[in-house]
Amino acid sequence: MNSSKHTELANHAWSVADLLRGDYKQSDYGKVILPFTVMRRLECVLEPTREKVAEAAAQYEGQDIDPDYWLRKASGHSFYNKSALTLKKIAADPQNAAKNLQVYVGAFSDNAREVLDKYEFSQQIKRLGNADLLYKVIGKFTDLDLHPEVVPNHNMGYIFEELIRRFAEQSNETAGEHFTPREVIKLMVNLLIAPDGDALTVPGAVRTVMDPACGTGGMLSAAEEHIREYNEDATVEVYGQELNPESWAICRSDLMIKGQDPEHIAFGNSFSDPGHGREKFDYLLANPPFGVEWKKVKEEVEYEHKNLGEAGRFAAGLPRINDGSLLFLQHMISMMKPVDARGGGGSRVAIVFNGSPLFTGAAGSGESEIRRWILENDWLEAIVALPDQLFYNTGISTYFWILTNRKSRDHKGKVVLLDARDQFQKMRKSLGDKRKELGKQHIVDVTRLYADAIQVAADPEHPLHAKVKVFDNEAFGYQRVTVERPLKLRFEVTEETLAALAAAKPVQKFADAEAFVAAVRTLLGSSWSKKSDALVALKDAVVAAGLLWPSGAPFAKAVRDTIGVRDPEGEVQAIKGEVEPDAELRDYENVLLGEDVEEYLKREVHPHVPDAWIDHTKTKIGYEIPFTRHFYVYEPPRPLAEIDAELKALEAEIQVLLGEVTE
Q1: In sequence order, which residues have a C-beta less than 8 Å from that of residue 632 and are 6 or more positions away?
Q2: How many Cβ atoms are within 10 Å of 55's Cβ, its own excluded?
Q3: Hey, which residues does 220 pair with through a beta bridge?
Q4: 346 with 407: CB under 8 angstroms?
Q5: What tens digit of pLDDT does each residue of 607-617 get?
Q6: Mean pLDDT over residues 642-661, rounded?
Q7: Which of 433, 390, 426 is nearest to 172 (CA)?
Q8: How does residue 9 score in pLDDT terms, banded at 50, 70 and 90?
Q9: What's the confidence (pLDDT) of residue 91?
Q10: Does residue 363 contact residue 478 with C-beta atoms inside 8 Å?
């Protein structure tokens, strides 16, 4: 089936919008169109065995046994409908359409009915009935031929996704909540599964695939198909979880139609309510929403982080509250199969991120600690940069992160960075923000380059050498060092320092504060190069005024800080014999992991500030992956003469145009 046929069928379903206009807001069209599309597909799939199911239902009616198993067997699927009604019969009786449709929906098996319930379908039936639109909408869908022999399962997925995309656009979804184009999924699945190609051809191969943000199930379908390309007899079990009820309903119905177990698709939030417990999977892949906050599940996530430690999913760290991307990755890593003593087992993970998880967060932050955990465990195999404008609802740049706990020998201790940002073709017609797509050859080329990455990076003569770089894990680590400089002060009594002294809290607490300040004022205009000399003069002035010099460290510090003025030539201050650092001159340097920070200080800092030192107690280890920096190519600015000539040519052209206007 070609793409024009997909579009034609999707257009037919979406044409119901013409009936809904006026009674429904645009953003609500999908709440009618999507569940009716699901129901029509289920009806078409069940049609060949309808009579068998009716006979089985009649046979077990009134008996004290649950007929569910026998009804499923009769239908040939994991779902059924035991009603004699059809959408066509319901549409033919407009007066009873609402009542009959409720009966029809109630006759579905529990798992199918649960899908329709997630759309709040009963409410839509009532609303359409009140608007006298129900029988018309049903009639539209009876004309939609979704029988499996006309629309195979794979193609039905395209139609579902096209309808979901239109619904998302009408609903004005945020940029992060997008749907993954099929060609992007194809490349992602290639990179995830291709290294295991030989193992997949073994007779009786069984593989499990998990997507914790599965949406409508597009990635799960693509992964299943890709595995079957290696071995059509392989057993592929797909699992997922989805928070959006409409997307969950579509994914679950898709599995029903394909003969998979729909119970494998859990509903709910993967962070607070993981639907698959402690199960482990062979392959995990996801395209979680970008930049979406996790405030709603903050309590549960923080509890697991603080109390479960390594037994939980989030021991490594927590990202900032406004982006849960790295929580998804930790969740997926927790579901990797362990590697056994013989090197068997293990898992592979692929996830789509924007640029933020590469570098957001300073040393010691949650994001940096998560990156550190991943790299120090040698799980990150590669990062692949994709072209921008690939997704329907966002044009931002995106990256594949590929992880595994069973790296091949040549990948151990290393990370591949692959630049595929130029691998695209312009679309003839944009779809939302999607203006670029990966062609078939692009997918082939990137897949091949990924497989050969280590060799290509090692061969300067290779034509694609500049597109691949390989680094040791430690290359992304750095030491965040605190460079201190001594606090240097001179001491003086001026109107400014006197006002600061009067405003200091320890001075204000002094019973004779006003008299104290007045006594110091007698020294207005005086200055001293040493703190000891200044304090002697101040004490003498205060005692001469008949006052006692207040005791206590807070008071002494307040006097020093207010009459002391920073001066590069001033006296170096000390605390208990140690040089006191100047917080205003404090600086930070990122030093490569493994490099001697003292040698770095001598080489990079001391030539400019010889008295600087490193406070080793404040040093933190950080990790970041500055992808674009590694692939930056300097382009010299155009020569001034060339720019000047172009400007003169433009001026001449403007003069000619002005002359034509004034003639």
Answers
A1: none
A2: 11
A3: none
A4: no
A5: 999 999 999 99
A6: 89
A7: 433
A8: confident
A9: 92
A10: yes
Please state the separation of Cα 592 from the chain's center in Å.
27
pLDDT at 486 over 60: yes
Which tokens sit at 179?
A: 């749907």
Q: Give kind and range of the element (H or E) at residue 50.
A: helix 50-60
Compute the chain's Rg from CA coordinates.
Answer: 35
Q: Determine the Cα–Cα distance for residues 619 and 539; give it in Å rounded to an integer.
A: 41
DSSP annotation string for 209-225:
EEETT-TTSHHHHHHHH
Identify whether the C-beta of residue 194 lies closer than 8 Å to the C-beta of residue 201: no
> What pTM value is reported for the model?
0.81
Amino acid type, 524? L
Distance CA 551, CA 545 (A): 17
Q: How is residue 193 written in tokens?
A: 């599964």
pLDDT at 5 over 80: no
Q: Which two tokens stand for residue 50?
A: 């309808």
Element (H or E) spanning 384, and its range? strand 380-385
Task: Encode pLDDT of 257-302 as tens digits.
Answer: 676 788 899 999 999 999 998 899 999 999 998 888 899 999 999 9
Q: pLDDT at position 616, please? A: 96
Q: Which amino acid is at 530?
A: K
Give me the DSSP letters along 416-449: EEEE-TT--EEEEEEETTEEEE--HHHHHHHHHH
Evaluate whether 121 touches 113 at the Cβ level (below 8 Å): no
